[in-house]
Every structure is written in C-alpha cells, then in structure tokens.
C-alpha cells in the first residue's frame, strides 16, 4: 500500500510540472555549482602546493646572512583545501588561507577572497551546500504542501478513508514520494562528490566526512519533509498549508540565521584590530622588559653584552609567545562564544545547526581555521628557535653580524599540514548533529500526530 | 462627454474599491500585522545599522586621538632632544622615527557617510582605516579589520536587507491572491459587473497595499538618517536619502507589478503563491549568486597566491641587494642625539627602509593590474545588473550609503598617494641622516579625506533606477493588457 501511494504521488507531482520546474532548476544549480567548485578546488589546491614548495625553495636559496635576518624573510604558508570544500566552501572566502611566518609577530590569516569580490558577494556564494540548504527545503515544501490538503480538497482523501487505508500508511507513502523527489537531488550530488573524493586520492577520511555530511543533510531535509506533511495534514486547505510553509521556510532559512549572527555579535562584541593590537603591544612591552630585567638585569636591549644577544633574542621571543597565546586564544574564544550563541538562538532554525555540521565536516569551519593557524604559528616558532639556537651557538662576539649559510636554512623542515581527522571534526560539531536529529524526530512526531487527527472532509 | 463620464465613474470606482479593500484588510488584520511586522523589522535594521556605524565612528575618533597623542609626545621629545641622553633605538631626532611602526605610524581614515546606517554594505569586509608606516604599500592596503567570519558570511541585518529581502515577501503575502481569492470566493463576477474596468479595480487594491507597505520603507530610514546623523551638507544628504527611499519604492513597485502580472494570468491562489515564491527565489537568491559565479568564471579575481609568491621573491631579492647593510654597528649603538644636525642611522635601519621601498615600487605594476581586473569585474556586474532587480537595488543603496566597493577603492588610492608623499618627504632625510626637528614633524604631509566626485555615481544610480522602473512599467502594461482582454475568462 505504501509503495502504491508513493508511486501515485510521485507521478502526480512530476506530471503537474511542479517537480520538473523546481527540482530541475535546483538540480541544474547543484550540478553547475559542483562543476565550478571542482574546477576551482583543483586549481587552487595545485596552486597552493606549488606556491608553498616555491616559497620553501626561496627560503633555502637565500644565501649567507644573519639567522635573524633570515627569520625576517620567513615564509608564507597556505592552508590546504579539503576535498569537500568544493561542496561547502563555508568560511574559507571570509578568512584567507595564507599566513606569513616572520620574526617577532604572530600573523593573522591574510587576504580574504571576499575582500576582492564584487558587491554581489553579500547575497551569498553559489555552492552545492547553498543550493541544498536554501533551495532543497523549498523543493520539499513545493512538492509536498498539498499531499493531504490537496487530497482533501479533491475528495480523494474521503475515498481512501472509505477503502480502509490507515492514515499512517498514507503518511509513509507520501513521505516516500517526497523523499524520492529529494533523492533526485541528493544522489547526483553524492555521486559527484564520491568521484571528487576518489579523484583526490584522499579516501578514508573524506569518505567518513562525506557520510556524516549526508546524514546531516538527510536529517535537515527530512525535518522539512515531515513538517510539510504535518502542516498539510493539519491545514484546512492547500492554500493555507502553502502560505504557512513558505513563511516558515523564509523565517528558518533567511531571517533567523542573519538575525542570530547579529544578536551573537551584540552579545559578545568582537574586539577591533586597533584594540587587539594595542593590548598585544602593551603585553609584549611588559613581558619583554620583565624578561630582560630578570635574565640580564638591564632595562634596554642594547645594554645586553654582544655575545649574549642571541640568547636575549630567544628569551624575548619566548616571552612574546606567552603574550600571543593569551591574546589570540582569547580572540578565538570570543569567536567560539559567538558561534555558540548563534547556535543557541538558531535552535529555532535547523539551518544554523546544519551550517555548523556542514562546514565542520567539509573542513571549512572556524575550528579547522584555528587548527591551521595554530600549526602555522608552531612552525613560525620552530623557525625562530632554530635561528636563535644557531646564533647562540655560533655567533659569539660577532652578535648580529654573524652569518649562517644554506645548511641552516635546509635544516628547517617544510611546513607540512594535514587537516585533522573526521573524528576530531565530529567531536566539535556533534551538538549540531544532535539538534538536527532532535528537529527530525520532532517533525516526525508532529506529522504522526497530525495524521492521527486527519479529517477526510 | 461619454469619456468624461467613464473617467469620473472609474475614479469613483477606484476610491470605492480602495476604501472597501482597506476596510477588509484592516478587519482581517492582515494589513496591520504586515505593517507592524515591517515597522519592527525596519526599526531593528536601523538600530543595528546605527549601532555598527556608531561603533566604527568611535573607533575612528579613538584612532585620531591616539595618533595625536603620539605626535604630541614625539614633538615634546624633539623639543628636549638636545638635552637628553638618547637611546639610539628610540632617538626621536632619527628621521626613521617619522616612519617607524611606533611613533611614525599614521592612519588614513575614511569617515562614514551620512547614510551608512541604512546600508552597511561591504563596510565589514573593507576597512575604513589603513595603518601607514614605513612598511611597503602591499603590507597595508590589503589589511582587514578583525571580524568573526561567521558574521562576514551571514551579512548584515540592516534597513537595506529589510527592503531588498523582506519587503517583497510582505508585498507578495498581501497580493498573491488579489483576484484569485475573489474568484475562489465567487465575488469576482460581482466585481466584473461594476462599470469600472478590472484594471482600475486591481489598481485600487494594490494602491492600498503599496501605500501601506512602501510608506514606512520610504519615510522611516530617511527620517532616522537625517535626524540621527549630523551632516554638514544637509541638502546633499537629503537628496541622497531621497534617492535611497526612491530606490526602495521603485523596487517595491516592481514586486507589486510582478504580483499583479501573476494574478492577471487567472490561475488559482496556490499557483500564484508557488510562482511568486519562485520569482522571489530566482530574483533575490539565485540571480545574484549566479551572476557572482559568472564574474568568478569570466573575470576571475587575480590570484592572491601569485601575489604572495611574488612578494616573497621580491623581498628576498631586495634583501640581497642591500646585503652589505645587513650589519649592526655596535660602536655607535649607544650613540646619543644629533650632532651638527646629523644622526647616525644604523645600517640595518637603512637596509629596512631600502627593502620596503624597493618591494613597494616593484609590486606597484602588479597592484595596478590587480586594480584593473577588479574594475573589469565590477564593470561586468554593472552591465548585467538588470538580471537581478534585487542586486540593482542593493548596489544603488550601498552606493548612496558610501559602503560600496567604489568608495573604498577611492579611499585606497588616496591612502596609497599619502604613503608615497610621506616616503618622499622622509626618505631623503633617512638617506642623508638629517636630524628631525619639531618643525619637520609638523610639516609632514597629512592624510586628507576627500569624497569622490558624486556626479558619476548619481547618474549611474539614476540609470539603474530608470531601468528598474522601465521593467516595472512593462510588467504593468502587460498586466493591463491581460486584464482588459481576458475579463471574461478571469470571471469564470
């Protein structure tokens, strides 16, 4: 019986053109965004790999010079793109993927791509994730809004009741029909993403991430599916069902995410670069002066004996590391608090939870950016320490005027960063998965409850 | 005579239907709810806009205060420099102090435009100040302020967002069943039996809705901008504000015209709702992001990776060019202040400024190419903006509020010029080791903000408004034609 109902409904919304138009448009957008994303991802990944290699070669070939001078040249490192970033670029366009590892300063991620974009960027980015998050629910509600209400208007619901079809079978049949419609969007997406994962050669972890992504999107679209059927069963007619569902879709996908973002910012204000830099500068000045006094009993760096300048530099660097850790840690914590506040307000919309999960599993969320920034800073410190160690050992009375050669530069290993495993990502975004699962269960229960009270007339 | 009678009866019918419609919408509470919701959203958007712009203005004031305090401090040190025993690294008479990242740091500041709270636009992505020191130009022009990327990706909740995204939804919610509901209730036949043409009836219906929804969008933001933001040039601000309100109204009229056109097709309310939701998705969500994607494919942004590679190589090459200066002269490290108008400049200091200047000059052609590519991308958007009335309206609003890319590009050019002026002033002093006096400090070039000539921008916005108005008129003409020719079929 379930299969019969599902088949009849599916043929119904395909024949009346709704599914062909809306689903077709969504599919075209989905496939084109994946194709463009794939091309962009391949080019970018290759370009970043090549640039990092070339940067390292420039570092090694820099010739004889003072190690500290070499540390000032430093090197640029790039965050490697995960394969699934082609599906959901997430925060990548708004963060930047380059860090300059230079002496004395912990650098931010530089060059946000969104800064180079036209004003249209404010409308969002056309990615496969955007299509599934925004248009996917619309497809669901446009093909499902009249599932029960339409039957009631046509009088066929009464006939079905008189034939003794149990309401819950009707519900499962109709849910299967809408789910089959949604599957026509999800299946090609998953197939293309599988192809991308296989092409990248990064199988194990990417497949696990893809599985979690798929689960998240199924729960998200499933929530809209059962909510749509619940409203359709409860509404007096299909017009009311459609209006209620469209209003809910707009509030959930357009209004709440933006409002939640603004409210979280009001609750936990982001420090300005001016305030942040001033606090770091004050902290550095105090820490450096204290380190100088404690270790060398002098107030000015130029009063340190020449043969001790290498050690003084290292002590100065280590004093600065603590200051950077404190201030950058606090900044990332503000971002994390803002995200949590956003997600709390966003309990009203499954989209907020889905975005957290989707960017987390695609490796394009804040946690992954923070992990990369921390790895880059560790590498910067490694370079600083190696340069200072060499100067401590070899400079002697030459101080700054001592020069090292390429052998030292070669000792610095290339920056090798790999994204954290899927388990690490899941440990950070499981609350989003729980929220999505809870939303799904609630929508399912509401659909069952609505169908139990179903009136054929 | 007959025509005059028809015109009078049409006019009477218009007012009768409008009065009746207002009464109906008021009694079923849909109009008061929609207007109250719109007012709440606009007030929320305006509050948020004012909050963000006030935060930014406070920051800019704090920057200037901090800069003035540093300059005064340096001037005081310069007054007593001869008498003090000086630290070579903090010698105020050393000309490098005028470009150093501590005392010599200067801010180039772009003030908020009076209408900025109405459309925050790209103000969070593009900085409103640059930190200009002796570091190469490429080190400051691409800086950004700190912001949570989630906020950058979500966008702003401001008056422009309400006007561009949400106003159409309220218009469509009140208008999707203008005629279809009458037909479904069976009252359309009665309406058609009246002497007035159906187009006049529809006009009266949409006039009530349009007036109720467009008045708050047109009046409230303009009033808040004029009252809450003090502007020296009141009339100029009022003119821009009026153009902002006109943009919102023309955009609103476009959506009313779309709703009328769909109603004129004579389908059911559910069909109308589906089609109008589809048009909203296409115009507001899909068209702008598709256009944005087309820009990325046809005119890709210049590679930042390439820039970074080039910068790194140039830096390394410049280090080689000035390798002979890579030494510390320990003998003179404890050198006191100026002697006979000259100070000793440490070789490492000299090398640093040489390197920064060389990198700056060598990067300039790349930066010019980069700017030219960005111009081509923006030109592409300007050419195809008609594909999305939402994008057209948003661009016009950002332009008028001074939160668009164009004003920022102008600011960036001014900042680059200022950087070069400072360098031309200080660099010869560094090369010759000339001791700096207080007069030198006071005579240093200052950053002066000047607005871009507004004529071109206003013309561009007026053109885009005219395009949108033309599209609206075309939709109206089609609807009137359709209503006049299918009165009988609509009544069935």
From TrEMBL, chain A:
Q: Which GO terms describe its cellular component?
A: plasma membrane
**Which InterPro entries does this UniProt record tie to the protein?**
DUF3526 (IPR021913)
Indicate the transmembrane segments per the record: 19-38, 130-150, 170-198, 210-234, 240-260, 433-451
The GO molecular function terms of this record are: ABC-type transporter activity
Keywords (alphabetical) are:
Membrane, Transmembrane, Transmembrane helix
Name under which the protein is recorded: ABC transporter permease
Its lineage opens with:
Bacteria, Pseudomonadati, Pseudomonadota, Alphaproteobacteria, Hyphomicrobiales
From TrEMBL, chain B:
Question: What UniProt keywords apply to this chain's record, in alphabetical order?
Answer: Membrane, Transmembrane, Transmembrane helix
Q: Kindly list the residue ranges recorded as spanning the membrane.
A: 31-50, 159-179, 210-229, 241-265, 271-295
Q: A Gene Ontology molecular-function term?
A: ABC-type transporter activity
Annotated signal sequence range: none
Q: Which domain of life is it from?
A: Bacteria
* Cellular component aspect of the GO annotation: plasma membrane
This one is known as ABC transporter permease
